[in-house]
Amino acid sequence: MFVRSLNNESQLLRKIAEGDQHAFKIIYDYHRRAVYARAIFLLKSEVLAEEVLQEVMLKLWQSAGKLTDETNLGAYLTTLTRNRSFQILRRRVLEAKTEIELRKDWTESHNETEEGILLADTQKILADGIALLPPQQKMVYELCRVDGLKYEQAAQCMNLSVETVKSYMKLALRSLRSYMKSHTDLAVILIILKII
C-alpha cells in the first residue's frame, strides 16, 4: 500500500527533525488515511487502527532525523503500520490463550448473581470516587483508563507534558484507592483491584 510521495518530503522530514510542527502536520495530513486504512484492514477495529495511526506518527516524529533523502516515506510508514498491527494481533492472541488457560484452571464455585450485584455496587462507588476528582485528574483518568489512551496521547489531547499526565494519574489513583477503601469492605477491595 504505497502512496505517492510529496514533492518536498525530504525537506519536510528535515524540518520535522528540527521540531517543526507545521511540517509534521503536512506529512501527517498527507499520509494519515493510508496508515489508518492499512491498520483497519489488518486489525478490523477502528479503535486499534486509530491507536496504530497515533503510534506510527509518533514514531515518525521521533525518527525523522534518522531518515535519509532516499527513504520512501510511504513504504516506511506502511512497514511501521504493518509491524505495529502484527504486534497488536500477537498480543491479542496471547491474551486469548491466557484467558482460556485461566478459565481451565478456575474451578472455584461462585455465585454469579451475588458477584454481579457486588460488582455493580463497586462500579457505582468507583464512579462516585471519579466524580469527586479534581477536573484535570478526572480527565486524565478517563482518557487513560476509560478511553484506553496512552499517556503520550492523553498529554497531546490535553496539551500537557507526559510527566504532568503521569503525575495527575498517580494522584487520581491514590485518591480513588483511598476513597474505595473508606467506602467498601475487604471482599469488594479484591474486586476493585481488577477495576482500578
Automatic annotation (TrEMBL):
Specify the RNA polymerase sigma-70 region domain's residue ranges. Answer: 27-92
Q: Which UniProt keywords apply?
A: Sigma factor, Transcription, Transcription regulation
Going by the entry's taxonomy, the superkingdom of the source organism is recorded as Bacteria
Keyword hit for Protease: no
Domain named RNA polymerase sigma factor 70 region 4 type is located at: 127-176
Stated family: Belongs to the sigma-70 factor family. ECF subfamily.
PANTHER family tied to this protein: RNA POLYMERASE ECF-TYPE SIGMA FACTO, RNA POLYMERASE SIGMA-70 FACTOR ECF SUBFAMILY
Task: From the Swiss-Prot or TrEMBL record, give the protein name.
Answer: Sigma-70 family RNA polymerase sigma factor
Query: What organism is the protein native to?
Result: Mucilaginibacter aquariorum
